Amino acid sequence: MIKNPQRSNLLSPETKWFSINHHINSILYIPLIIDDKVKYFLAFDAMNEKEEFSEEEIEILSFFGKELSKAAKIERMDDIIHDFKNPAIAVAGFAKRVKRLVESNEKEIDKERLFRNLDILIKETQRMQDMAMSLHVEAKEEIVDLTEVLLRRCQINEEVIREMELVNIKSEIRDIEKGLWVRCYPLYMERIFDNLLHNATNAIQTQGQRGKIVIRSYKELNRGVVEISNTGEISEFTRDMILKGESRGRGLQIIFRLVNLMNGKIELLVKDGFTTFKVSFSLVKRHR
């Protein structure tokens, strides 16, 4: 707690000026600790006739801060559980393929197919482990090819479509440009694409008609761009709600949060019978 904030050496001139103009007599800072690190502070002001906070008030507000920290961790856990769905379905699908190959009556097993499926199976289970560990371990930035990440996630989404027997949905990859190097958290980028692809799949499934998902990636000025489109147009009202962050869908909330975290941009286009999410990130030079 800082008493007489106007005289404190711990506060900036702007904060001192603010405290004078708003008749603030003392400021109580409560740290929010997440994963053993102070991530945020809650600030409470004693104003006008109130000179400072009592011990009982400090105890209550500290308890409130601890509960907020717990809620933040639970929110992150809910996000991870949400994003487990697609890789879990894909893993089951690839595991079945491997089992069929091993149990086949053919004299010579197609080793290339077997190893390809095993490789994807190992990578996806490792990724699920990384997602679980991200609750406790800070993510690390890397330079990756945006298109390569996108194509891997498209492969997983196609397996999900196949596993769920969604025969009315087709994926189409167009205008792919490789070498779109961006600095990002790879796991977060994968989660963005997984959620966009899942939402596109779900949108077509909800319509109950045949439809397709169209994938594009390209360079636009100094940015790498990915477009994920699905058949069907949303209303202008729904579009505005989504862009304002007022959508109830957890997947969309995760997408917007992670795109903003990595200083990306997101646009939502509705035209020619398609709804398109366009995400872009600053390009960087790859150091060999």
Q: Would you mind describing this structure in some detail?
A:
With 288 residues, the chain is an alpha+beta fold. The protein has 3 domains: 2-74, Beta-Lactamase; 84-138; 141-288, Heat Shock Protein 90 (2-Layer Sandwich). Helix content is 49%, strand content 25%. A 5-stranded mixed sheet has the order 5-7-8-10-9. A 3-stranded antiparallel sheet has the order 1-2-3, with helices on both faces. A two-stranded antiparallel ribbon has the order 4-6. A hairpin with a 2-residue loop joins strand 7 and strand 8 (223-231).
Structure described in brief:
This protein is α+β, with helices and mostly antiparallel strands and 288 residues long.
Question: How are the secondary structure elements laid out?
Answer:
Elements: E1 2-3, H1 13-21, E2 24-34, E3 37-47, H2 55-83, H3 85-103, H4 111-133, E4 142-145, H5 146-163, E5 169-173, E6 181-184, H6 186-207, E7 211-220, E8 223-231, H7 236-243, H8 250-261, E9 265-271, E10 274-282
Parallel strand pairs: 5-7
Antiparallel strand pairs: 1-2, 2-3, 4-6, 7-8, 8-10, 9-10
